[in-house]
Amino acid sequence: MTHTFPEDLVQTQRDWYAVYRRLAEEPRHSASETAVLRRRLLRLSVRVSTHPYWQTTGGRLPSARMALKEAAWAEVRAEAAARKG
Q1: Please, are residues 12 and 44 in contact by the beta-carbon 8 Å criterion?
Q2: Are 75 and 10 in contact (CB under 8 A)?
Q3: What share of the chain is helix, strand, coil (3-state, %, to 5)?
Q4: Predicted model pTM
Q5: What is the pLDDT of residue 25?
Q6: Which of 6, 19, 58, 80 measures 20 to 30 Å from 31, CA to CA?
Q7: Are 9 and 64 spatial neighbours (Cβ–Cβ below 8 Å)?
């Protein structure tokens, strides 16, 4: 099944990846910076998981969550490739 996700949901998942990557790639954050990033990651997780889309028929399918992650990650990779030129 093909899912059509709202743009704000895809953007929130992309933001989640960006924050997660910052936490993973920059291990020398101060304790306060790490706490801020973790709180942001938690807020983004809540926004993704409580988005109204998940109340729709398509959103109730277990495959929908993985499809969202794959769609958002594909956009992140495409942007990175475009920046590299």
Answers
A1: yes
A2: yes
A3: 80, 0, 20
A4: 0.85
A5: 83
A6: 80
A7: no
